[in-house]
Amino acid sequence: MDVLVRLEARPSDSPVLAHVNSIPVLPFGTRSRREVVTLYGAADAQSLALALAATVESERQEVPQSGVVRHIGVWPDRGAIGDSAWRDGRTGRLITQDLDIPFLTLEARAIELLEEWGPTLRRVAAGLGMTDWPEGTDRALSFSFRGSHSGAMGSGSSVALRDELGVENWLDSLREADAYSFEVEGD
């Protein structure tokens, strides 16, 4: 599962922590499913883990199906609320399912995610929170869960997290692209 994490200002009229929207696997198999996680306010690993937990838990509630699209909101003390939709393979009808995941369930799954992938989640959150992003750019970073089905996360599976953008050097790449790199004598 590919994950794109974005950071936006907190809406003034809502205490929402995050929104998760999924983009299904393309029929010709060019990439895996992508989850677009939008964090609001300050980025932290706990909020990111809660948003990812909403995705994992929603998969557990659904009938295994390809082409599933999800829209989920994550709120503190309220949990994750949203829906998922897919086309029935035989009839072509659109099937929808409401999702309501209690906060305690999300919190337990988020703890498992932080135990297994905490360093990467913290690096992504820290990267989004850095103050020296170029002005006018959207704060967004991407990483992937590789291996077995993401629904198995937290069950001791051997899923590995791979950092696609190189969270460690993403800012250096931006500086070089904007001609802000400096050469040191002897390099």
Give structural notes:
This protein is of the alpha+beta class and 187 residues long. The protein has one domain. It is 28% helix and 29% strand. The chain contains three helices and eight strands, in the order βββαβββαββα. Strands 6-5-4-2-3-1-7-8 form an eight-stranded mixed beta sheet, with helices on one face. Strand 5 and strand 6 form a beta hairpin. Helix 1 packs across helix 2. It is globular, with a radius of gyration of 18 Å.
Concise structural overview:
By secondary structure, the chain is of the alpha+beta class. Helices cover 28% and strands 29% of the residues.
Keywords:
8-stranded mixed sheet, alpha+beta, 187 residues
The amount of beta strand, in percent, is 25-35%
What's the helix-strand series?
Answer: EEEHEEEHEEH
Structural class: alpha+beta
Largest sheet: 8 strands, mixed
Itemize the secondary structure elements and their pairings.
Blueprint: E1 2-8, E2 18-23, E3 34-40, H1 45-61, E4 69-75, E5 79-87, E6 94-101, H2 103-129, E7 139-146, E8 160-162, H3 170-177
Parallel strand pairs: 1-3
Antiparallel strand pairs: 1-7, 2-3, 2-4, 4-5, 5-6, 7-8
Helix pairs in contact: 1-2
